[in-house]
């Protein structure tokens, strides 16, 4: 079972999500919170697998709550579910540690699929949010010296990672073992000073190391 915590300041939204998710055999809604402060408290008490997190809420917003949750419980995944697709919300949410970013107009089946994908280790972006993110990152200034910190093979791995490929797919593409890929990814995280694949992909695009060709996935 995928244990989900719903966080949204609108009762109607929480009820709607609860009603639909309860029909899924592999998903269990373990709790609800109406703001980020309650979300942090419930995460500590319930230890869900995934938190469906709204962005704009009273007392503590979704980005602040995500940052607190990820700092204390890094294994818990955050899926942002919001109405905002602009750069001022998407990028901070991902930098805070969100594994996914979806808009509230998403089809229910697509939302469930996103939950399952994140549970399996993928990182999901709504196409609109992804488009906004790519545009924003490509407009920012590149830092050429960063390119010199990675070996040629690490750059190859980073390029494949940014395309959304899994370790197995990267290993197959580069004709190396999965263990070797894991080692390269660990080195990439250390050199770029990032914590996960999403942040590595964002860093790569932001600093001109590679380009995003589609939704960022694990």
From TrEMBL:
GO BP field: phosphorelay signal transduction system; regulation of DNA-templated transcription
Pfam families: GerE (PF00196), Response_reg (PF00072)
Domain Response regulatory: 3-119
GO cellular component: cytoplasm
PROSITE patterns: HTH_LUXR_1 (PS00622), HTH_LUXR_2 (PS50043), RESPONSE_REGULATORY (PS50110)
Database matches in InterPro entries: CheY-like_superfamily, NreC/VraR/RcsB-like_REC, Sig_transdc_resp-reg_C-effctor, Sig_transdc_resp-reg_receiver, Tscrpt_reg_LuxR_C, WalR-like
Bilayer-crossing regions: none
Keywords from the UniProt entry: DNA-binding, Phosphoprotein, Transcription, Transcription regulation
MF GO annotations: DNA binding
Stretch forming the signal peptide: none
HTH luxR-type domain location: 143-208
Modification sites for 4-aspartylphosphate: 54
Cellular compartments annotated: Cytoplasm
Protein name from the UniProt record: Response regulator transcription factor
Species annotation: Lysinibacillus antri
